[in-house]
Specification:
Layout lengths: L4 E4 L8 E4 L7 H14 L12 H8 L3 H13 L3 E4 L3 E4 L5 H11 L9 H4 L21 E2 L12 H11 L2 H8 L8 H11 L12 E4 L2 H12 L6 E5 L3 H9 L4 E7 L2 E2 L10 E4 L13 H13 L3 E6 L22 E7 L9 E5 L2 H14 L5 H12 L2 H27 L5 E2 L7 E5 L6 H9 L3 E2 L1 E2 L13 E5 L6 H18 L16 H7 L4 E5 L5 E6 L4 E6 L5 E10 L2 E6 L8 E8 L2 E5 L5 E8 L11
Parallel strand pairs: 5-16, 7-8, 7-10, 10-11, 11-12
Antiparallel strand pairs: 1-2, 3-4, 6-13, 8-9, 12-13, 14-15, 15-18, 17-18, 19-20, 19-26, 20-21, 21-22, 22-23, 23-24, 24-25, 25-26
Length: 624
């Protein structure tokens, strides 16, 4: 068989090879056309980019120049390519969405149907993790989200100091030349001598494994110990990541309820070989397992010859409490301890630790070497230096002080605005508060409606194994917004809860007009960004540009974008999208109060609402 003829596309940034097969039944013209369209569709040949010359391409492929010229003429006639005088052929700048769809269809022309992906996949996750936190969460005025750190809790100086130290000649030579499957010796030493003792844990070097966060540690343990033969006990509610990892291994799950002292210990645990708990700070409710309950659980598991996986989400520094870890009670190696390291420095340094008997650590290290290998050496050494130079302790102390103040402010605000409608745990732990609303409240609907006002909360249903659980509950974090914004955010949330539990129609009163007039709209709209939500819950943002254009971005990954135009007419803000909203003109009476914006159509009934981020944040609010 003759070899395929190939040539690299003329792109300095891409080395993709362009093949044609002389033995294929498909004509050469069709093959060249398909490969060029594929290059355009995948961005190898970007809009405005120059395509290879016909003579050069023909020479590289070993075909006649006329063959290439015919393909170029077809693509130019169809709008994919554009000719520039004395410059050659270029990919068209203005390929529309419809043209892009044509490109995508043509890529597979004559190549058969795509594989049946769903049938071929053996394990598929049921959860869309992207929907928990929108990408523009920091633009919302009231993001009550766990695990997010606002700008006040950033530590640039500490990062810079540790990173600079890690790349001195001495430190660099110490970590960069080690390619074994072991972990950074300095980080292991710092963890053993400074981090673990504060949790009451003593461990030898061979009993410590560094991971890329607690999730990798749990994944390694699940791969080593979990199968479909014996059920696994988890807390109810629990983090969905835990439940999903077990489900993907086809494990039977026993959802064990949590009360005010932690996981309930009863006969349901007897059949379970593994029990997974978050004892120092239960995720997601924040309950701390009492010492008596910890001892009871350890006795129960020991009697049944089982194991406990302790995930310590209070041990990364941000929420360190005085309560020792469950591992500190373990004299027989029944507890496998997992936690994060350096949480105060956010997701930029994703490090964790597993503490277990040496035999278990050896097996976990083998599995880790197969799937990922050790955490990056540079990250491990930076983490070690953050601890050894004292930055970890000072940053964690700063975060703890800020979080404690914010938790108190959130508790007080909930008590002030919603004294009879919500139930919260008075014990303030972690970085969030678990809230239970009135029985008829739909937490998911509340989250969607609150987001329209810039208030982001987490509905609780996703934390429950039983789909009926947590319907009226939600979680509010405080590490993601500053102290002065907490009260206003709760006030906005209270309005939504009152509307949902005692709904009234939002209608404008013509006797007391509150909407903006032409001159006020002309001042407030140009340069503003509007943060809204669709009827099905997806976030979208709109840039209202001063030149009269609109830029819209929708979805959790901005996967749906559009452009349009806006203008002001007869005290109404008018807009028309190129593709969204059927490209029809819409006219709205507009009410702005502080950072809230509401739109009403001519029937005077509320159409939609959102948050307005103004180009001039110091500008006074204009109403009426």
């Amino acid at each position: 068989m003759a070899p395929e003829r190939s040539c690299p596309l003329a792109s300095a940034r891409d080395q993709t090879i362009f093949y044609v097969d002389a033995e294929s039944a498909a004509p050469l013209q069709q093959q060249i056309r398909e490969r060029l369209i594929h290059a355009i569709a995948t961005g190898v040949l970007a809009p405005g980019g120059k395509v290879p010359g016909s003579r050069s391409l023909a020479s590289r492929l070993g075909v006649s120049r006329n063959t290439v010229l015919i393909v170029y003429q077809q693509l130019t006639a169809e709008g994919y390519l554009a000719s520039r005088e004395r410059s050659g052929l270029f990919v068209a700048d203005d390929l529309s969405d419809i043209a892009s769809q044509r490109v995508a269809r043509n890529v597979y022309e004559g190549e058969g149907a795509p594989p049946p992906w769903r049938a071929l996949m053996k394990r598929r996750s049921r959860i869309d993790w992207s929907r928990r936190i929108p990408p523009d969460w920091a633009l919302h005025p009231y993001p009550f989200l766990e695990d997010c750190l606002d700008s006040e809790l950033s530590f640039l100086t500490e990062w810079r100091d540790a990173t600079r130290a890690a790349f001195t000649a001495h430190e660099f030579n110490a970590w960069s030349r080690e390619f074994a499957e072991g972990d950074d010796e300095k980080l292991v030493h710092e963890v053993r001598t400074k981090i673990l003792p504060r949790r009451g844990i003593e461990a030898r070097e061979d009993e410590v494994l560094i991971t890329e966060g607690w999730k990798q540690g749990l994944d390694l343990i699940v791969q080593l110990f979990v199968d479909a033969k014996r059920p696994i006990a988890v807390e109810e509610p629990c983090l969905p990541e835990i439940r999903e990892l077990l489900r993907l291994q086809r494990a039977a799950i026993v959802a064990q309820p949590v009360d005010g002292e932690g996981i309930v210990v009863d006969n349901r645990l007897e059949a379970c070989e593994l029990t997974i708990v978050t004892p120092r700070r239960h995720a997601p409710t924040g309950v701390a397992m009492s010492r008596a309950r910890q001892k009871q659980l350890l006795r129960k598991v020991t009697q049944r010859d089982g194991l406990i996986v302790e995930i310590d989400l209070a041990g990364g520094g941000v929420n360190d409490s005085q309560t020792p870890a469950l591992k500190s009670l373990d004299a027989a190696g029944r507890v496998l301890h997992i936690s994060n390291l350096c949480d105060a420095f956010g997701p930029g340094l994703r490090l964790g630790v597993v503490v277990a008997p040496a035999e278990v650590i050896r097996e976990l290290r083998k599995i880790r070497s197969l799937v990922a290998g050790p955490a990056p050496r540079a990250a491990q050494r930076i983490g070690a230096l953050l601890i050894s130079l004292g930055h970890h302790d000072s940053a964690a102390a700063k975060v703890r002080r800020a979080v404690n103040q914010r938790l108190t402010a959130l508790r007080d605000a909930l008590n002030y605005y919603l004294p009879r409608l919500v139930l919260i745990d008075p014990k303030l732990t972690g970085t969030s508060i678990w809230v239970e609303g009135p029985p008829g409240l739909d937490g998911s609907l509340l989250a969607k409606e609150a987001a329209k006002r810039g208030v982001l909360i987490e509905p609780a249903r996703r934390f429950f194994h039983d789909a009926r659980g947590g319907a009226n509950a939600f979680r509010m974090g405080v590490s993601s917004l500053s102290l002065p914004r907490i009260r206003d955010g709760v006030a906005e949330l209270a309005k939504v809860i009152h509307e949902l539990t005692d709904p009234t129609l939002d209608r404008l009163d013509t006797a007391q007009p509150s909407w903006l007039k032409d001159d006020a709209l002309s001042k407030i709209m140009p340069g503003a960004t509007l943060l809204c939500h669709t009827a099905y819950g997806d976030p979208y943002s709109v840039e209202v540009r001063p030149d009269g254009t609109l830029i819209g971005k929708a979805g959790y990954a901005h996967e749906d974008c559009d452009e349009g135009e806006w203008w002001i007419e007869d005290d109404r803000w008018c807009r028309r999208w190129n593709n969204w909203s059927y490209s029809e003109t819409a006219r709205f009476l507009t009410v702005v109060e502080r950072d809230q914006i509401r739109w009403y159509k001519d029937d005077l009934v509320l159409f939609n609402r959102g948050v307005i981020v103004r180009a001039n944040p110091e500008g006074a609010t204009v109403t009426g």
